[in-house]
Amino acid sequence: MKSEPTGGRGRHTSVPSRRRLRWLAGLAVGALALAACSGPQGTGSSDEAEGDQQAGGGQGDLRVAVISHGTPGDAFWNVVKNGAEDAGEDLGVQVEYNADGDPGNQAKLIDNAVAQGVGGLVVSMANPDALGPSIKRAVDADIPVITINSGEDRSAEFGALTHVGQTERIAGETAGRKFADLGKRKLLCVIHEAGNIGLNERCEGTRDGFSGQVQNLQVDINNPTDVESRLRGALQTDQSIDAVLALNSQVAALAVSAIEAAGSQAEVATFDLNSDVVAAIQSGDMLFAVDQQQYLQGYLPVQFLKLYRENANVVGGGKPVLTGPDLVEKDNIDRIGQYVERGTR
Asked: What distance in Å separates the CA atoms of residue 140 and residue 22, rounded to the nearest whole number?
């Protein structure tokens, strides 16, 4: 069920369109690109310009492949895709977005992009061991790589320029502290995807920030009925659980239903936003959401790759570029919820 955003403190009187948002973001980049082209290094021989275009670095000729581990059509990854495609439109970059939740298939998508000679790669690394060889082959082929969302700790190991996302352990710690501040004592952390190192890091971070007990529950997001059943069973078995942390907005909705079915007094918070989460926070059925602003995880890498190709810029200084965590709760949900409806939060 989707909710229409309602007015709240600090809300804008009108929501800027995605096109307006992209224009504002692109304006700064355009200024940088103009400065680069008009400076002493901006004029080169025709041979140099031709070489840049062959490498994908010429104005309008840069091809960037964005390859995520998300399921096609997933609400979270659709926002990443929106960010990447908006950046491509703003900056004159050809963006090709592909997604596959199977690590082996994701590696093949990377290999295909390398074989096609793309000018840059953006890759989410939920399973670094499976993707590492393919990413190294891209780097060896002089294709710059930026990792996003997952795999921050091993990004530099594989030769990526930088990582864009949130540090999952820090985000988990933020959630744990918030639950502790709310007086919760026993927390269930729901891991919905086996082998995803970022999800385990979120639960470990929650332990760091939470003053009570944290118990992990492994479920399979591809089987929603089983997810709800396992949650209900865990809550019925241990009535002392008073908090549930979902690491995915779809799981959060199932957790709300499971709590009601189990007759539990536990309350739910989640990672990531969608329309249902917005409605649940507004109605009081959910406490808060940890937002990693994934639109930026699509937009910024395309921007960074263009600047790298055209001006040799490297962003981050060896550190990740953080897009979160940003805590979304009752007092700011009306302001932020409008952008969820637009597809940019």
From this structure: 33
